[in-house]
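re: ur question from earlier - yeah i can do the single chain one, its not a big deal. heres the input i used so u can compare w yours
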Amino acid sequence: MYTRKNQRNLTSAERRGFVGAVLELKRNGEYDEFVRQHIEYYVTDGEDGLRAAHMTPSFFPWHRRFLLEFERALQRIDPKVTVPYWDWTTDNTPAAALWSEDFLGGNGRTRDHQVMTGPFAYETGQWTIMNGVTDRKYLMRNLGRPSAPISLPSHDELAWAMNEPVYDMEPWDSTAASGFRNRLEGWLSGGVERWRNHNRVHRWVGGHMLGASSPNDPVFWLHHSFVDLLWDRWQRRHPKAVYLPRTRLRPDDPQSGRVISLEEPMPPWDVKPSELLDHRDLYRYEQ
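and the output i got, formated as tokens:
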């Protein structure tokens, strides 16, 4: 068993180890396979077919397995590396440590949002975008969206999700009126606060974090490591809560064939949500 640390507590050696493993994964082509996989399984309400990764109850277990596969790929390069987490309720400005030149690099420049600093800047020659929503080959960020400013989620906004005692609810998509999954994933609509928690973080970072190809920005993994930790905290806070839906939806349900219940396999691994409800035999989080 190993430990995932808060990114602010990484040593210089741990930062170098993580960055080095990510760059090697990019060099050998594996990194872009993860980007393509996320694009493939990012299926929205308005599209046909199974929703495994987003706008769906399997949002948490699917990303737990996705993160584990990525972490195992890093550990094949450097066994000491784990995926740190970014607590965006605390490290909530562009001056936070994760945006330093020796780690993830900083914001994009004003005119085209191109990241110019750090190991993932295009000019280093080590980070070319191969699968993006545009044809631009450089990593883009727009931290805080200065033209229409937004903030990262606050402790109170996160508590609004964490205090919800029910895991998910019908219709099991982005329009679910409540439920922990949708409150944390953040699709609930309404005025200027339309984007909540997880979704707001993607929008605050901007650039490549805005769409299905969001793993192009390495901060994706730190963000989802924290989301995974939050799922764990929610389970501990609500020990009687269960993954929903528990059973396969009826054939006459409009969401039948589109939503994964507790004992149905999630592609592409054919692993069930029930097998990913507890991570403590594999890793722990530094709290």
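DSSP finds seven helices and two strands in the chain. not sure if urs matches, ping me
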